[in-house]
Amino acid sequence: MTLSVRSESTASKAKRPVVAIIGGGVSGATTAFYLAQADQSPAPEIVVFEPRDGLGRGLAYDTAEPAHRINVPAARMSLLTDDPDHFLRWIEDQSATAGDADALRPDGNLFPRRKVFGDYVNAMLQPLIADGAVQHRRAAVAHLLRNRQQRWCLVDEDGGETLADIVVIATSHPPPVAPGGLQTLLKDHPRFVPDPTKAGALGAIRPSDRVLVIGNGLTSADVIASLVLKGHTGAITAISRRGLRSRGHAPFPQDPTGDFLADPAFTARKLVRNIRRAVREATATGLTWHGVIDQVRAQGQSIWQILPIAERQRIVRHLRPYWDVHRFRVAPQVETALDEAISQGRLQILAGSIAGTNVEGETVRCALRLRRGRETVERTYDAVVVTTGPGHGRILASQPFLAELAARGYLELDQTGLGLSCTRNCEAVGPVSGVTPSLLIAGPLARGTFGELMGLPQVTEHAAFVASVVAERLQTASPAQNPL
Fold first, then answer.
1. Which of 211, 245, 348, 416 has the fewest CB atoms inside 10 Å of its own CB, making it the most exposed?
2. In this structure, are residues 349 and 243 in contact, taking their beta carbons and an 8 Å threshold?
3. How far apart are CA 33 and CA 128, in angstroms?
4. What phi and psi values does residue 439 have, to the nearest 5 degrees?
5. DSSP code at position 358
6. What is the pTM of this model?
């Protein structure tokens, strides 16, 4: 498809600068929230492109599944970086957990359903939308091009065009990819679930079905907990290369402990040694590993910047699964559901891979190659669910506008393979264009540059930073006269 990039006359140029944010999940919505608070004259027009009916829900929080819960206590989640209890107070003011007796845990921590946090972020944006500070364009961006005046032209899926001076890409990672040839082999199977994050994805699975879950991370835990809540009684096998299951929360409150910046690690090996030493020291004082990992997370972006690219790549290649299961902890309600399924013999977690698959009618026969002992076992399933995590390698192909920007040399994958290449100021870096100051990357797609960007408070802090970069750009350049 060939598109012409619309030019504009001087008279038609907007008097106010326009900032377009592509993606209205937590990262995009929070960026818009903080940019709208900035003291600027003239205030920019902020347009958020998000097909969903609200802002702030995104892939993570746009779920009606009652088993899906936030995986950190509500007291540690807030849109406001200087008010960590804000979400907790909002829940109380709105009675947002009414009817959810399981939300409050015996230790006093609150783990509401995930939808509640999406509702909270959306509620925070609504006053800004009502007074015109933020516009919610309920459409996906199909094309993103640059015109002769060096402004950006966003063409949405409905054919509408929006001219912008700065564009912030805040989209999510692409869905998981089934290993080997499963995607092709099972594409017509009635109970093959390639993307369990879609609404109603598990609806076809029957109560007594034998289920194979490929992957053992948070999504896998959510799938199993959802099946349990729906009354599923069939056998479930969860398989991943290492068989690592997401861990739960600390048995008692603990502050972050340790220091990984005073004597920084310049290699992945040294970082692991430092973490293990800190865990031993914490254990000697009666604490658990949780506070140590929390400190690594808090200092994560600084730790990441110190490490050379080759060491970051080594961490992604060899250590990320171990980090993920300790960093991304399951909610207590989900942990209980998994523990009960294991104790009842209905859930088995295996370390291994799929060596072969045959489909006979609606029966899926799999040869599972186990990691320990390297033996192969034959299993039969009625349903297969893919929870292998984001398909990082498919980021540029996941949406047409990203593929176009990559083809024109504005975007490329970062060297760690976790996201898109960008500077420390979030400016996109491409193989042809180099650094593009008016094209910014926000949220998880900037993870390769910043390291820790997958949970709060890092997500909100990063969004506030992106907003500050945009505000500074608008102050130092008049887009109508000096395009960015």
1. 348
2. yes
3. 8
4. -125, 110
5. E
6. 0.90
